[in-house]
Amino acid sequence: xxxxxxxxxxxxxxxxxxxxxxxxxxxxxxxxxxxxxxxxxxxxxxxxxxxxxxxxxxxxxxxxxxxxxxxxxxxxxxxxxxxxxxxxxxxxxxxxxxxxxxxxxxxxxxxxxxxxxxxxxxxxxxxxxxxxxxxxxxxxxxxxxxxxxxxxxxxxxxxxxxxxxxxxxxxxxxxxxxxxxxxxxxxxxxxxxxxxxxxxxxxxxxxxxxxxxxxxxxxxxxxxxxxxxxxxxxxxxxxxxxxxxxxxxxxxxxxxxxxxxxxxxxxxxxxxxxxxxxxxxxxxxxxxxxxxxxxxxxxxxxxxxxxxxxxxxxxxxxxxxxxxxxxxxxxxxxxxxxxxxxxxxxxxxxxxxxxxxxxxxxxxxxxxxxxxxxxxxxxxxxxxxxxxxxxxxxxxxxxxxxxxxxxxxxxxxxxxxxxxxxxxxxxxxxxxxxxxxxxxxxxxxxxxxxxxxxxxxxxxxxxxxxxxxxxxxxxxxxxxxxxxxxxxxxxxxxxxxxxxxxxxxxxxxxxxxxxxxxxxxxxxxxxxxx
Length: 530
Known about the structure:
Layout: H1 2-14, H2 18-21, E1 32-40, E2 43-52, H3 58-66, H4 73-91, E3 95-99, H5 108-115, E4 119-124, E5 136-139, H6 148-161, E6 168-170, H7 177-187, H8 194-201, H9 203-212, E7 230-233, H10 237-246, E8 252-256, E9 266-268, H11 271-282, E10 297-301, E11 306-315, E12 318-327, E13 339-342, H12 348-365, E14 370-379, E15 382-389, H13 397-405, H14 409-417, E16 432-438, H15 440-447, H16 450-461, E17 465-469, E18 485-491, H17 494-508, H18 517-520
Parallel strand pairs: 3-4, 3-6, 4-5
Antiparallel strand pairs: 1-2, 7-10, 8-9, 8-10, 11-12, 11-14, 12-13, 13-16, 14-15, 16-18, 17-18
Helix pairs in contact: 6-7, 7-8
C-alpha cells in the first residue's frame, strides 16, 4: 500500500508544471505513512490515515539509535537515490560517439542510452533500420579492422567537418574495441587505452603478457599464476612443430586468436584431431567473431574446474564493483555456453579470489578504466584465466545484474566514458536467476511458433522469467553455432531455480533427447549441503 501511495503521488507530480511542483527538479522523493490495522472478518488489513513528509524518519532513526547495527538503514536508500539522480543530471545532454551499433542483441544500448538523456552520434558501416531521428548517423566502413588508426583519424575528420564535438566515445561490440580506444587516445577522452585493448583482443598476447609481468601490486599474487601454457598457430605446419617440440599435456583447447562468443573453440585430444579442426575452421565464414583481424589460432591448456564470468567495473585503477556468475558444463568438444546462474553459489572466499584475479589481470595488461568481462576457471589450484573481454559483458549479463543487484553496468560504462566515477551501491540480492541457452539447431521450432513466443514474452513482461534474444531470426544454421537466446527463471534460491528451470524447459520443449538440460544444470546442487 505504501508503494501504491507513492506511485499515485508521483503520478500527480508529473501532471504539475515546474512552478506548481516547487521549482526545477522538485519532486516527491520520500513520504511517511500512518496506518491503522483493522480486522475484516478473518483477515487483518491496513487503513491509511495520514500522509506526511516532515517527520517520516523519526521513529526509524530512534530504532537505529537503540539498535546500533541498523544505523544508516533508514537514510541509505534515499542517499543512493540522490546520488543516482546526480549521476543522471551530470550525463544529461552530453554527447557520446558510439562506434558500431553491434549485433541484434546489442541494439538495446542505443535506446537505453537515449533514455538516460545522452545524445548519440553513431558511426557505422550501414545505417540501421528504424534509427531514431535524434541519433546523428555518420557512415564509415568499419569492416577493415586492421586499419584502426586510419579509421580513427578519418572518423574524427568527419566529426570535425560536421562541427560535432563529443564528450565521450564507447563501443559495446567486440570487434570495435580497438577503434574506440584509438579515438579516445587521439582526442584525449576517458576510457581504455589502445595498447591494453590490443593485448586483450589477442588471446596469445594476453597470456604471454601476464606470464612476464612481475606485478604492480607487490603483496599480491603474480599474474603468471592465472596464466596457462599457450602456443600460437599461424600456419598448419605450426601444429606438428608444437606437438613434436613442446610435447604439451593433452587434451588441449584450440581457439581463434581474435575470436569471441566461443565460436571455433574446440577440445582436441591429439595432433590428428587438432589438424582436422584447424582445416575445418580455416574456411569458417561468420561476421562479428574476429575473423577480419586474422585467422591465426592458439592452443592452450584445457583448464579443469568450474567456469565463471566476472563482470568488473574499474575507474582509474580503483575497483568499483564486481559480479560473479556461474556457467554450466558445455557440450564438448564445443565450448558454447549452455546454462548459467547469478548470484554465484561459490563461497565468498572463492568469489573474492576470482574478483582479485580478474582485477589484477585487467590492470596488468593496462585496462585501468571501464567495464570489462573476464572469463575464468576456478581450478583446484585457484583462479585461471580463459580470456579478457575489454568491454561490457554481452548476452544476458547486463540484464541479469541489473535485475539481481539494481546496478546498470551499461550506465557505469557510459559514466566512465565521460570521465565520471560511478557510485555503485549493490542492493542485497534476494533473487536468483538460473538460465538455459537456446540454439537454432535444437529449438527453432519454439521460436517460429508465434503462440509460444507470445507466452514467453508475456512471462518476461510480468517478471516471471527473463528472456534475452541475441539473434534477430532463427533462420540459418552456421557451421559454428552461437546461442539464439536465453531463458531464465526467477527464484529465491538456486535449488528452487534449478527445479523451476527444468520444469519450464520441459513445458517449452527446450529439453530434448540431444539437449540434456539436467546435465547442464548439474553444477547446481539438488539440496542444501550441510
